[in-house]
Design goal:
With about 600 residues, the protein is α+β, with helices and mostly antiparallel strands. Helices cover about 35% and strands about 25% of the residues. The strands form 7 sheets. The protein has an 8-stranded mixed beta sheet with strand order 5-4-3-6-2-1-7-8.
Length: about 600
């Protein structure tokens, strides 16, 4: 008896659904792409409970007649591909004919569509047609998907949280809106509007709707072409960058793709203008003959193959570099309102006991800054424990003289670098030092990163209740998908003593933050915290989060390369670096200091053999 049998069509559709329908965003993607292929100029995506309860996509495309409406739910039925030659000239987003039957096999689907005067209604549940009838006429198509995975509970169990599902859908619709600025997109969840573009064809307007006005003002228009490709769009000024590659959007013939080699080439074009670990905001539209690309190499069609790929990368690289060099990169000074000076009373190394009040700037403020850079020694020396124990017995806090003496003893125990004497600054980046052993070069940014990293690591692991109210609230505008992730994780911000309120549809207002935030750029620190929450959202671990956050804040708070600093600043960096637990590397592993011994120097100059 034969063991091999042709698989039942319903079973085959359920298996296919495993690839096509993984999450709610998978359904939205397939339905929206069908609407685009149908020539729609208006697409509404209405969600209930982030799509877990219901997804409805309404368009004003060409619609279908009654025969095509039913045939569309048969596997491999498509209007976009008829023969083998068509496979190499694909101009539509969909072409395999698997989406609708796969979706219908694991959910309940109601399709309403009209091409002329008479509409058609198809009702399918679990792959079985329950209703096939005529309905009211309205040119276009409406598809409602509900009871998702009702007959495959294992899949339903593995759906992400409502916020995660909604963030994924929002991110996808953002990308589609950037791909098709001539299409009006309206995305709602539980009747709350998340995105609304006007369909005017103005890409910059779509960028503003997604990323906000501050980003939009710093986007640069680009355009270039060669014999095979035409590239246009917008790129951000180098100063506008993010921690994730997700802001780099590349669109080929209307299809959003993720090509690692192409993204690497785009980022390398910025290499001399920004830090290696940051990524620009880019929207690049690549247009080419369909025969020069292959879109059938990835199950979800997220990647494609290019002909003459090296020429395309060179075209994009040169276009970005020329555009950036043609603009002034001098940041504009933003005048900020003066803030009250912070006065610390009952000063001690135990930050939790510090009382904050407003007052005049005093030496105690500078002293507190010094202590903040040395708090890591509190746990590493018995000297401090003995001093604290003695004062607790006497029911008093250590005096400034006692604290200073203790710090000096601790510092002498813990110095890992020799005494160094700065003699100048090379290339605006490297502090040149000397002593009786030779010459040293210190990377001022890497060194201060290490100093700040150890300080912030301690402060994050030993949070105090000391906070300060902002005179002018800090407003941070986010793309909707990131706004939703932050909203889901507001508890993290509260634990960091950052008071956050929703402000508008996709912005947050910060009214209170810890006193240890840099007084010059608390907004950048909070932006860094937001970026870290978004980055770690799927694999959140408090210890790793605090470590990555400390590194992120340290980088933002440190002096940059190509910045001229005074000799006093050099001495301060050297002294603080000598007191670090690890003064030799920044948090990212780069060296902070390089030594040239007298022997090595004399050998190079052939003074010594």
């Amino acid at each position: 008896m034969s063991k091999i049998k042709v698989m039942d069509e319903l079973l085959a559709n359920k298996i296919a659904a495993g690839e096509v329908v993984e999450k709610c965003v998978s359904i939205v993607k397939e339905l929206v792409e069908n609407s685009i292929d149908a020539g729609a100029t208006e697409i509404k995506i209405e969600l209930k409970e982030a799509g877990i309860r219901e997804i409805k996509v309404i368009d004003n495309g060409i619609g279908m007649d009654s025969n095509d409406a039913l045939l569309a739910f048969q596997r491999h039925a498509t209007s976009k591909l008829y023969n083998v030659d068509d496979l190499f000239n694909i101009s539509s987003l969909g072409f395999r004919g698997e989406a609708l039957p796969s979706i219908a096999s694991v959910s309940e689907v109601i399709l309403k569509t009209c091409q002329n005067d008479i509409g058609s209604l198809i009702h399918i549940k679990g792959g079985h047609v329950l209703e096939n009838t005529l309905c009211e006429s309205r040119i276009g198509t409406s598809i409602t998907v509900s009871n998702l995975f009702y007959n495959t509970p294992a899949r339903l169990k593995h759906l992400s949280s409502i916020y995660s599902e909604l963030a994924n859908i929002s991110d996808y619709i953002n990308k589609m809106a950037l791909s098709y600025p001539k299409v009006k997109f309206l995305l709602t969840n539980d009747e709350k509007e998340l995105l609304n573009t006007d369909g005017s064809g103005n890409l910059l307007k779509v960028i503003k709707a997604i990323y906000g006005l501050d980003v939009t003002k710093k986007m640069l228009s680009v355009s270039s072409e060669n014999e095979d490709y035409h590239v246009s769009g917008y790129i951000s000024m180098p100063e506008v960058n993010r921690a994730s590659r997700n802001y780099m959007t590349t669109i080929v013939n209307g299809r959003v793709i993720k090509n690692a080699s192409l993204n690497k080439s785009i980022n390398e074009a910025y290499s001399s203008f920004k830090e290696d670990t940051r990524y620009p905001i880019v929207v690049l539209i690549i247009e080419t003959d369909p025969s020069l690309i292959d879109v059938n190499i990835h199950p979800s069609k997220l990647d494609i193959k290019f002909s003459n790929f090296e020429e395309l990368k060179q075209l994009i690289n040169e276009m970005i570099i020329q555009t950036i060099r043609g603009k002034s990169l001098i940041p504009k000074i933003e005048k900020k309102e003066s803030k009250p000076t912070i006065k610390y009373e009952n000063l001690s190394l135990d930050l939790e006991r510090n009382i904050v009040s407003e007052g005049e700037n005093t030496d105690e403020v500078e002293y507190q800054a010094r202590l903040s850079n040395l708090v890591n020694f509190k746990e590493s020396s018995n000297l401090w424990e003995e001093l604290e124990k003695k004062n607790n017995q006497e029911n008093k806090q250590p005096s400034q003289e006692e604290t200073t003496s203790c710090i000096e003893e601790i510092s002498s125990e813990q110095d890992k670098l020799p005494e160094l004497y700065p003699i100048g600054l090379a290339l605006g980046t490297y502090i040149v030092c000397e002593n009786e052993k030779g010459i040293y070069l210190i990377d001022q940014h890497a060194a201060q990163e290490r100093i700040n990293y150890e300080k912030y690591s301690y402060l994050l692991s030993h949070p105090s209740k000391n906070t300060i109210d902002t005179i002018v609230p800090i407003i941070i505008e986010l793309p909707m998908n990131e706004f939703l992730i932050i909203k889901k994780n507001l508890e993290i911000l509260e634990n960091l003593n950052i008071h956050v309120e929703e402000f508008g549809s996709s912005s947050f207002r910060i009214t209170t933050h810890p006193t240890w935030f840099s007084k010059n750029n608390p907004d950048k620190i909070i932006q860094g915290i937001f970026e870290q929450i978004v980055k770690e959202e799927k694999n959140f671990d408090l210890a790793k989060f605090n470590d990555h956050l400390a590194a992120t804040i340290a980088c933002k708070a440190s002096v940059k390369a190509n910045t001229r600093i005074t000799k006093e600043d050099m001495e301060s960096i050297i002294n603080q670096l000598r007191r670090c637990n690890n003064p030799f590397n920044c948090p990212h592993g780069r060296p902070t200091i390089i030594e040239f011994t007298i022997y090595e120097l004399e050998k190079m100059f052939k003074r010594s053999i």
